[in-house]
Design goal:
The structure holds two protein chains of two kinds.
Chain A: H1 2-11, H2 14-23, H3 26-50, H4 58-83, H5 87-111, H6 117-139, H7 144-164, H8 170-178, H9 186-205, H10 207-215, H11 217-222, H12 227-249, H13 256-268, H14 272-297, H15 301-325, H16 327-335, H17 337-351
Chain B: E1 16-25, E2 28-38, E3 43-47, H1 54-61, E4 69-74, E5 77-78, E6 88-91, H2 95-101, H3 106-111, H4 125-137, H5 153-166, E7 171-175, H6 183-198, E8 202-206, H7 210-216, E9 219-224, E10 226-231, H8 233-238, H9 241-247
Parallel strand pairs in B: 3-8, 3-9, 6-7, 7-8
Antiparallel strand pairs in B: 1-2, 1-4, 4-5, 9-10
Helix pairs in contact in B: 4-5
The chains are: A mainly alpha, B alpha/beta.
Chain lengths: 352, 258
C-alpha cells in the first residue's frame, strides 16, 4: 500500500487511483484488522471511561470512523469548490452518482453480474465530472441551468433504472438516498479511510496550484500553470468524495459536508490554510454530534450531521456579526489570528 | 530584475512583437491587422473605447489566446509556447472579485508570485526573501496577515502588484486595475507603477482614464479593432487619433489613418 501511495504522489493518475482502490482488496483486510485490534479496543476503553455503551458497539464504531473521514475530506475539497463558487457541482455529482448506483444494480440484475454499485457510482460520477468540466471549458463559465439539467437528468436516469430493474432492489435505495448508519460495512469504512489518504495527499501535493486557480484563474494561466488540469483534478476529487460519503450522508444531503463547514470557516478564518483547518474542525464536530444524536434519538444520521453543521455556521455568522458591531472585538480579531479559532472551538464546545 | 533569458531572446529585440494579427470570436471580428512592438523597459498605455479589443490584444500579447492570423512573439518565443510564467505579472480586470469573500491573506496572495518557480515543495530562503521584499516595496508589510477582502480597493491593488514583484517578473500587464478605487489611491497607485517602470520593469496598462496614460506611459497605442495610433504621448495628444477611434462608426467607415 505504501508503494501505491508513493506512486500516486508522483504522477497523480486518477484512473490508477481508482483501479488501485478497487484492486487492493487487502486494504479492507487491514481496515478490518485496524477496526478489530486498534480502533475497536480504543473505543471500548472510551466507552468504559465515558460510561456510554454505544461507543462499544462495532457498528457504531464503524459509523464514527466513517463520519470522521467524511468530515475530513468533505471540507478539504469543499473549500476550493466553495471559493470558486462551484458548490452546486457537488450536489450535481451526488445525484448522478445515484444514477451510477442504479446502473450497477440494473447491470447486476440484467446480466447476472455481481458488481458493487459503489464501483459503478464512482465511474459514473467521475465521468460526469469530467464531462461537465469539458462543457465548461467550451462554454467558458459554469451555468446554473446546465448543472440543473445534469443533476435532474442523472437522477431521472437513476429512478428509471431502479423501476426497470426487478422490484427487489428498490429496498436498498432509501439507504442511498437518505444515508444510513446501520448499513455501514467494513468495506465502506475501508473506502473512506483510503479516500481520506488519497484526497488528503493529492490536495496537500497540489495545494499551491489549486489555491492559485481558485483565487485568480486568469493570473494563474498567465503564470503558465496548467489551469485545466487542476480544474479537472478538482471535479474528480469532488466526485470521489461525494460517492464515498454518499452511503452515510445520503445522495440528497452529501453536498452539505462540502459546503456548510466551509461557509462557517470562511466567516471567521484569518487565512486560507486556517479556513481549511477550521472547516475540518467544524465538520468533525458536526459529524460526531450528528452520529451521536442519531443514535440517541433514533433519527436520521445525515440530517442530524447537516443540522449540526448549520448550527455551527449560525454560530460563526453570529460571531462575525458581533465582531463587526463591537469595534474592540474587531480589533482583537484582526490583531490576533488565534482568537478566531478559540472562538469557534468555544462555541462548538458549548453546543456539546 | 532580469531572470534567465530564453535562447532566442536577444538584446535590442522587442519584448513583445505583434505582427499583423487578426482575431475574432467566431464570426465577430475583434482585431484586424494589428502590428505593435513593446520595447523592454517601456510603459505602454492601451487606450480605446469599450469593446475595442484592448483586453483581447493583451491576452494575445501574453499568449493566453492565439491569433486567427499573424504572429505574436513574447520574450523572443511564439507567445503561446512561452512557458516561463514567472516573468509575467498579470492583474486582471476581475481579479478583485474573488478576493473579496475568500479568506486569503495578503501574504498568501503575494506568495502566489513564487508559485511558477516553486509549484511543489518547500519555499527556499530566496522565495521567502522575495515575498518580504515585494511586500516592503509596495508598502504593505504591516498588512501581511490581513485578509485581502478586508482591505480598501487601493491597498488590494498593491497586493496584486506585490505578487508580480515577488515573482521577479520582467513584464507587468494591468487590465483596468483601478476600477472602483478612489481618486487619491489611484494617484498613489500610478506613482508606484511609474517608479517600478523607472527601475526597468516593462509595463502594459489598459486604462479608461486618458489623463493617467498620457502622464505615465512612454508609449500609447490607441485601438478600436484597428490600430489608430502607436507612438509617444506628446504626439498622441496632438493627433486626432482618439476622436477617430472613439467617434467613428466602426462597422461602416474604413479610415486610412496612417
Amino acid at each position: 500500500m505504501m508503494h501505491t501511495l508513493h506512486r500516486l504522489g508522483e504522477s497523480i493518475p486518477f484512473e490508477d487511483a481508482i483501479a488501485s482502490l478497487l484492486l487492493t482488496v487487502n486494504v479492507f483486510t487491514s481496515i478490518e484488522w485496524f477496526l478489530d485490534h486498534v480502533f475497536g479496543p480504543g473505543m471500548d476503553v472510551l466507552a468504559d471511561l465515558l460510561g456510554t455503551p454505544m461507543l462499544g458497539y462495532p457498528y457504531m464504531q464503524r459509523a464514527y470512523l466513517a463520519a470522521v473521514c467524511i468530515a475530513l475530506i468533505g471540507p478539504v475539497v469543499g473549500t476550493f469548490l466553495v471559493h470558486r463558487e462551484m458548490a452546486m457541482i457537488s450536489d450535481t455529482l451526488a445525484h448522478t452518482a445515484f444514477a451510477g448506483v442504479a446502473v450497477g444494480l440494473f447491470l447486476n440484475s440484467a446480466l447476472s453480474l455481481s458488481l458493487s454499485p459503489l464501483l459503478t457510482a464512482f465511474v459514473v460520477a467521475v465521468v460526469t465530472a469530467l464531462l461537465v468540466e469539458l462543457l465548461v471549458e467550451h462554454a467558458g463559465a459554469y451555468s446554473d441551468t446546465s448543472l440543473a439539467i445534469v443533476l435532474t437528468g442523472g437522477f431521472a436516469v437513476g429512478s428509471i433504472l431502479i423501476t426497470a430493474t426487478d422490484g427487489g432492489i428498490a429496498v436498498g435505495i432509501d439507504a442511498y438516498l437518505f444515508g444510513s448508519l446501520a448499513t455501514v460495512s467494513t468495506e465502506n469504512v475501508g473506502i473512506l479511510v483510503l479516500m481520506s489518504v488519497i484526497v488528503g495527499s493529492l490536495v496537500t501535493l497540489a495545494y499551491r496550484p489549486l489555491l492559485y486557480v481558485t483565487f485568480d484563474a486568469t493570473a494563474a494561466r498567465a503564470a503558465r500553470l496548467n489551469v485545466r488540469l487542476y480544474k479537472r483534478l478538482m471535479v474528480v476529487l469532488t466526485a470521489l468524495v461525494v460517492v464515498s460519503a454518499m452511503q452515510i450522508m445520503g445522495v440528497i444531503l452529501v453536498a452539505a459536508m462540502l459546503v456548510v463547514p466551509v461557509a462557517a470557516a470562511a466567516q471567521v478564518a484569518g487565512s486560507f490554510k486556517q479556513s481549511i483547518l477550521l472547516a475540518v474542525l467544524a465538520a468533525e464536530f458536526a459529524a460526531i454530534a450528528g452520529v451521536t444524536l442519531s443514535y440517541v434519538y433514533g433519527i436520521a444520521a445525515g440530517g442530524s450531521i447537516v443540522l449540526a453543521a448549520i448550527a455551527v455556521y449560525a454560530v460563526a455568522l453570529g460571531f462575525q456579526g458581533l465582531a463587526h458591531r463591537l469595534p474592540t472585538v474587531r480589533r482583537l480579531h484582526s490583531q490576533r489570528p488565534g482568537q478566531t479559532r478559540e472562538g469557534l472551538e468555544a462555541d462548538g464546545g458549548e453546543r456539546e | 530584475m532580469t531572470t534567465a533569458t530564453t535562447e532566442r531572446e536577444r538584446a535590442g529585440d522587442p519584448l513583445i512583437s505583434v505582427d499583423d494579427v487578426t482575431f475574432g470570436y467566431g464570426e465577430i471580428p475583434v482585431l484586424e491587422s494589428v502590428s505593435i512592438d513593446v520595447e523592454p523597459g517601456s510603459f505602454l498605455g492601451l487606450v480605446g473605447p469599450n469593446g475595442s479589443g484592448k483586453s483581447t490584444l493583451l491576452d494575445l500579447m501574453l499568449g493566453l489566446r492565439r491569433p486567427d492570423s499573424g504572429t505574436v512573439s513574447l520574450f523572443g518565443e511564439p507567445a503561446h509556447e512561452f512557458d516561463a510564467g514567472e516573468r509575467i505579472g498579470y492583474v486582471a480586470q476581475d481579479a478583485t472579485k474573488a478576493a473579496r469573500d475568500m479568506p486569503v491573506t495578503v501574504r498568501e496572495v503575494v506568495e502566489m508570485g513564487r508559485y511558477p518557480r516553486r509549484l511543489f515543495g518547500r519555499f527556499s530562503t530566496a522565495d521567502r526573501r522575495a515575498v518580504e521584499e515585494a511586500l516592503e516595496q509596495v508598502g504593505i508589510t504591516d498588512l501581511a496577515s490581513r485578509r485581502v477582502g478586508r482591505l480598501s480597493g487601493g491597498q488590494r491593488q498593491r497586493v496584486f502588484i506585490a505578487r508580480a514583484l515577488a515573482s521577479e517578473a520582467d513584464l507587468l500587464a494591468l487590465d483596468e486595475p483601478t476600477v472602483g478605487v478612489d481618486a487619491e489611491s489611484r494617484e498613489e497607485f500610478y506613482s508606484l507603477i511609474h517608479e517600478l517602470n523607472a527601475t526597468g520593469l516593462t509595463v502594459i496598462l489598459i486604462e479608461h482614464d486618458i489623463g493617467v496614460v498620457t502622464t505615465h506611459a512612454t508609449d500609447i497605442a490607441c485601438i478600436n479593432r484597428q490600430l489608430y495610433f502607436d507612438g509617444n504621448p506628446e504626439e498622441f495628444v496632438e493627433t486626432d487619433a482618439l476622436s477617430q477611434a472613439y467617434g467613428k462608426d466602426q462597422h461602416v467607415l474604413q479610415h486610412d489613418h496612417r
